[in-house]
Design goal:
The complex is a heterodimer of chains A (488) and B (478). Chain A is an alpha/beta fold and 488 residues long. Chain A contains 15 helices and 11 strands. Helix content of chain B is 41%, strand content 22%. The chains are: A alpha/beta (488), B alpha+beta (478).
């Protein structure tokens, strides 16, 4: 069996352009790998092998004409897409029974951009239903396993994408991040996950969970690939009013630049008593490494951190309660029978949604109800502003903030399903970033004694993904964590 | 006890944009079901709205025309409820921070001017339409989403109206302004202008408002009046019987001429409004507001003043002419073609309105052009036809669209100004009516009218009445 599937985007690019392999060979290798490991990992909901091979053929034709130079960066590269981004003519389920038969008649902006760049779609990856969860255990279909330990969860909600990248079932993938859903699974699977600045990437075609927090981001084997993918998907989209009309730099340009003198903020609220010792140890060691590269650690304070999880669960569920109202059995997706309209609504939603979705819809409906709106939604909006100000204040003193990505390494399947609050705390270090709208990346920074990956999070200023890439790349290149692969 | 009526109106106006409020679909009326609905209209997973700039411009235009202040910072909100014609399960509307606030317009009733406050104007999307049909083998309901996403403007008045007549006048004035602005066609039958009314009664002299009832589904001026009259009587009876008004929403049934309870306060929806996260707040700068203000057309009140000062027509005439844009435009076109203002006004008020009424047509549907009237007025001025004959000519040109000259020629209606012919007719009448002639000569001068009439009769109205008059007097004094 060839090992082409283990390539990164940048490595594969070179081989394709030099015609040392074909896009077809690369795709075949990826699908051989999928055949070998997917049964254990269960990263995908839908595999699109036929589509992929014809896309690879098309790509190869272009490579043949264009050769070394001029080929777009993703030409012939097999990527996986989280199953909450609409792909025209290809099942898009959001891992929900309510959309188990939904085939979108239109293409999301991100996948349109990937298509224009000549990518090869491997398949649609598993997630927690409607991206609500931190383990993929809320998927309406199956739980994805962590390639490092198949008894453990891969994180979530983009657990399928992270596991697929980790297991070399694709070269890279897209996930979406509302409260940590790209970064936390990336950390737990030992890969790189970026949540871009809110407004950097179009949300058009991303099935909404919490509109003011959702953002699509790359999950990749290394930092360079993350920059390459962001280059393609970033930029203003007239179809998304919340996408920002700001220029998009070439993010790969900053890779390899010196980080000497960069001020590295360490928020005291993120290093507290009771934190997992092994995670703490890895992160502290990483900070020491960065210091040795010339970065200057500075203690900063993000005083409203303690309110972030509560604020998030009011705002995200409020928006979700409204965003998910359209799944009513009338137009598409599941329709359960009923004796009248109300009965049809109720049985459709009762059968179609999983327990966590129902919990969040109820929470959000409650928070928006008249008489409670002021106390919950409005109050949470005010706290959100304070959290945003915390970051603005901290960024007057430092260039980057560094924290652990998740409080623990991957936990066991079933370990936290009985206690939603415990599950919600998995996102304690990632949620503030979504509330503030700033960008952040997770990169591998070590392993626990059980051999499970630990993630390091770099948080940047609004629209300053360049600083994140610069420091993340510098750190990655000094360490060997990315070279360790799970034994599958 | 005497009661005072308090009425406030919520008017929904469909905006005359080419495309929908949040997508590029056409807003044209009457297309086949669901032929004008895309993934955004259908509320597919993952779609996002993008505001049609024209809608914002139209709303600001309207706000400025009714003396509102335009919000420099405004945003959309979601109004959440389930219904099959509402594809997303929420309507994108405005709640806090509407685009326009604190305006007013003046209505005239029995010659008195009254100011009606306008609380707010906001933008929103229309819902689709449910169609219920029984087919063999069962009952089916269909949803047509062509209308989903058609832009609407809701104009909310203060509770400033005190009678159904005032409400009708307000509605007419508002419709007229919207049509002047070109933002809404004002067609109530097709539903491009609809209204909900809030009605309450309170004992004369009391400050606090009584319990209000909302009446929905009012889609004509006639129904505004009828529905309100019915509801006021209903409430009055409840109060006089010692009962209490229940806060509720009632539906106007225009077939049975009654309002019927739709839902009570307890069943009122909790719409769970919250700011629409898919649309960024709108920041409207002063320059844009100024530009829109300077592009406003002349509005009815201004036009009325100009008609009085520039054309010297009476106030009542000006009121009537400017009550509808189409009437005022027609009038001005006739003046431009050389018609005398007072003459033109008289013919519009009189014959033209009469003929339109007989056909059950509104002025908008009038096919008769001002050039036709002006052509005929010229024939009166140059004495080709008499004013009396003109009515016949007018009816003919109105119906056939022919030129007045052609009609006069074809029907032989040319006025007889040949004194020889008139003299002969006069002599015949004097000879044929010796008694009346004698009485006239004895001093019964009003008999001249009878004799003129006789001459006109024998000439089939074609004789120049002035000449007949003069000749008769001359002969009788001989």
């Amino acid at each position: 069996m060839s090992s082409l599937h283990t390539l990164t985007i940048s490595e594969a690019q070179k081989l394709l352009r030099r015609k040392e392999m074909t896009a077809g060979e690369l795709a075949e290798s990826v699908f051989q790998r999928v055949n070998a490991v997917e049964e254990k990992v269960k990263a995908f909901i839908t595999l699109t092998k036929e589509t992929a091979l014809s896309m690879a053929d098309e790509a190869q034709k272009i490579i043949h004409v264009q050769g070394e130079s001029g080929a777009p960066s993703l030409l012939g590269i097999p990527l996986a897409v989280k199953d909450n981004m609409c792909t025209k003519g290809i099942l898009t389920t959001c891992a929900s029974k309510i959309l188990q038969n939904f085939v979108p008649p239109y293409e999301s902006t991100v996948t349109s951009r990937l298509k224009k760049d000549g990518y090869v779609l491997v398949g649609k990856t598993n997630l927690d239903e409607f991206a609500m969860g931190s383990s993929t255990e809320n998927s309406g279909f199956h739980t994805t396993r962590n390639p490092w330990d198949l008894t453990r969860i891969p994180g979530g909600s983009s657990g399928g994408s992270a596991a697929a990248v980790c297991a070399d079932e694709c070269i890279a993938a897209l996930g979406s991040d509302t409260g940590g859903s790209v970064r936390q699974p990336a950390a737990l699977c030992g890969v790189v996950g970026l949540k871009p600045t809110y407004g950097r990437v179009s949300r058009y075609g991303l099935v909404a969970y919490a509109s003011s927090l959702d953002q699509i981001g790359p999950i990749t084997k290394d930092v360079r690939d993350s920059a390459i993918l962001l280059n393609v998907i970033a930029g203003h989209d007239p179809a998304d009013s919340t996408s920002a009309p700001v220029p998009v730099p070439d993010f790969t340009k900053v890779l390899g630049r010196d980080i000497k003198g960069m001020k590295l903020g360490i928020p005291k609220e993120y290093f507290i008593e009771g934190m997992d010792k092994e995670v703490e140890h890895s992160v502290k060691k990483a900070i020491a490494t960065l210091e040795s590269l010339g970065a200057i650690p500075v203690e900063v304070s993000l005083p409203h951190t303690g309110y972030a999880v509560a604020t998030y669960y009011v705002l995200a569920t409020s928006e979700a309660s409204s965003n998910l109202a359209r799944y009513d059995g009338v137009k598409y997706g599941l329709r359960a029978g009923g004796k009248d309209l109300m009965d049809m609504y109720m049985s459709t939603r009762a059968q179609g949604f999983g327990a966590e979705i129902k919990r969040r819809i109820m929470l959000g409906t409650y928070a928006l109800s008249s008489g409670y709106y002021e106390a919950y939604y409005k109050k949470a909006q005010r706290v959100r502003t304070l959290i945003k100000k915390d970051f603005e204040e901290a960024f007057t003193k430092v260039d980057i903030i560094v924290t652990p990505t998740a409080p623990t390494a991957a936990f066991k399947v079933g370990e936290k399903t009985a206690d939603p609050l415990q599950m919600y705390l998995s996102d304690i270090f990632t949620i503030s970033v979504n509330l503030a709208g700033v960008p952040a990346i997770s990169v591998p920074c070590g392993f626990t004694s059980e051999g499970l990956p630990v993630g390091l999070q770099f948080i940047g200023k609004h629209f300053d993904e360049e600083s994140i890439f610069k420091i993340a790349y510098a750190y990655e290149q000094t360490t060997d964590w990315r070279k360790r692969r799970p034994a599958l | 006890m005497k009661y005072e009526t308090v009425i406030g109106l919520e008017v929904h106006a469909q905006l005359l944009t080419e495309t929908k409020i949040f997508c590029g679909c056409s807003t044209k009326f009457g297309a086949g079901p669901n032929t004008q609905s895309c993934q955004i209209c259908i509320g597919m997973p993952g779609v996002l709205p993008v505001l049609n700039k024209k809608v914002l411009e139209f709303a600001i235009k309207t706000g400025l025309a009714v003396n509102c202040s335009v919000s420099r910072y405004s945003r959309f909100a979601r109004k959440n409820y389930f219904y099959p014609d509402l594809p997303k399960g929420y309507q994108i509307s405005q709640f806090e921070l509407p685009i326009c606030e604190h305006g007013h317009l003046d209505i005239v009733l029995d010659g008195a001017v009254k100011k009606i406050g306008i609380t707010r104007i906001h933008m929103e999307e229309d819902a689709g339409k449910n169609i219920h049909e029984s087919a063999s083998g069962g009952n089916y309901s269909f949803v047509d989403l062509n209308r989903a996403g058609v832009p609407l403007m809701e104009i909310v008045s203060e509770p400033d109206m005190r009678s159904p007549q005032e409400a009708v006048e307000y509605m007419k004035k508002l419709r007229n302004i919207l049509r002047y602005l070109g933002v809404c066609d004002g067609n109530m039958e097709q539903g491009s202008l609809r209204c909900d009314a809030n009605v309450s009664l309170r004992p004369d002299g009391r400050k606090e408002l009584g319990t209000k009832v909302e009446i929905k589904n009012i889609n004509s001026f006639k129904f505004v009046e009828k529905a309100l009259e019915y509801e006021i009587m209903r409430q009055l009876k409840v109060l006089e019987d010692g009962g209490r008004i229940i806060q509720e929403t009632r539906l106007w049934d225009s077939v049975r001429n009654v309002t019927e309870s739709m839902r009570g306060k307890e069943e009122a929806h909790d719409y769970r409004y919250f700011p629409e996260p898919d649309l960024v707040p709108m920041a409207v700068d002063q320059t844009s507001i100024d530009n829109i203000r300077s592009s406003l057309p002349e509005l009815p009140d201004k036009r009325r003043e100009r008609f009085i000062s520039a054309f010297g027509i009476p106030e009542q005439d000006a009121d009537l002419l400017t009550s509808e844009k189409s009437v005022a435009d027609w009038f001005e076109e006739a003046i431009d073609l050389g018609g005398q203002p007072k003459d033109v006004s008289n013919w519009i008020k009189g014959e033209l309105m009469k003929l339109l009424n007989e056909e059950g047509k509104t002025f908008d549907e009038c096919l008769f052009r001002p050039s036709g009237l002006v052509g005929m007025l010229k024939l009166i001025d140059n004495r080709t036809i008499s004013g009396k004959i003109a009515k016949t000519v007018f009816e003919e040109i109105y119906r056939t669209g022919k030129d007045a000259e052609v009609v006069v020629r074809e029907k032989g209606l040319v006025q007889i100004t040949d004194s020889g012919a008139i003299e002969k007719a006069v002599d015949d009448i004097i000879a044929g009516n010796p008694k009346e002639v004698e009485r006239y000569k004895a001093g019964e001068e009003k008999l001249i009218g009878f004799l003129v009439g006789q001459v006109m009769k024998t000439t089939k109205g074609k004789a120049n009445p002035q000449m007949v008059n003069e000749l008769l007097k001359k002969r009788l004094s001989e």
